[in-house]
Amino acid sequence: MTSIPLTTNQDLDAERLREAFGVFPSGVVAVASEVDGQLVGLAASSFTSVSLDPALVSFSVANTSKTWPSLRQAAHLGVTILADHHGDVCRQLAGPLEHRFDGLAVTTTGDGAVTLDDGLAMFDCTIYNEVEAGDHTIVLLQLHAIEHADTSQPLVFHRSAFGTLADSA
Ligand SMILES: Cc1cc2nc3c(=O)[nH]c(=O)nc-3n(C[C@H](O)[C@H](O)[C@H](O)COP(=O)(O)O)c2cc1C
């Protein structure tokens, strides 16, 4: 096994941190809403489940995000867990704002939560809390409705690349 030696604080530059954080695999979600008749949203790999009672999940959004200030204005937000066939969709949801939802089949609730129709799981959420965390904000979301498929596999983000689960049931 090749290992990289532990380093001092001075070596914690962004590039090395991204590389080290990327060792940890994650799923990817789409966080989206409709605001003033426009679909707004982004891809996020920082999603995690947090609490059962109340039902909470979280994701972290960069403080430089152009989308978050409008996304957070919606009464409800939609979160979609992306499936293994969503690699290109994920790139699109992280790309130019005006094309993020091109060709995507989505459902918008009366409260403005937007979810992808072919997602692995869909959550209807409201913002429970926002916590400042360095150059990101941790957004805690409370769930109000959930829907999930049992068959597909999740999109996996690992070492800056997309993959799939090789041997899960
Ligand atoms: C696989 C993947 C995961 C991402 N995860 C996050 C994330 O957890 N938090 C975040 O703020 N941006 C994340 N991004 C970047 C956003 O999707 C988006 O590109 C970025 O926020 C810039 O767009 P904005 O200014 O509209 O927010 C991710 C992008 C990709 C491709």
Walk me through what this model shows:
The chain is mainly beta. It has a single domain (27-150), classed as Pnp Oxidase, Chain A. Helix content is 11%, strand content 40%. The strands form three sheets. Strands 2-1-5-8-9-4-3 form a seven-stranded antiparallel β-sheet. The chain starts with 13 loop residues before the first helix and ends in a 6-residue tail after the last strand. The mean pLDDT is 93. Residues 28, 42-46, 59-62, 65-68, 90-91, 93-94, 97, 157 line the site of flavin mononucleotide (FMN).
Features:
Pnp Oxidase, Chain A, 40% strand, 169 residues, mainly beta
Question: Which strand-content bin applies to the residues?
Answer: 35-45%
Largest sheet: 7 strands, antiparallel
Low-confidence stretches: none
**Mean pLDDT value:** 93
CATH architectural category: Roll
What's the number of extended β-strand segments? Answer: 11
Helix content: 10-25%
**Fourth CATH level, the homologous superfamily:** Electron Transport, Fmn-binding Protein, Chain A
Q: How would you spell out the order of helices and strands?
A: HEEEEHEHEEEEEE
What is the CATH T-level topology? Answer: Pnp Oxidase, Chain A
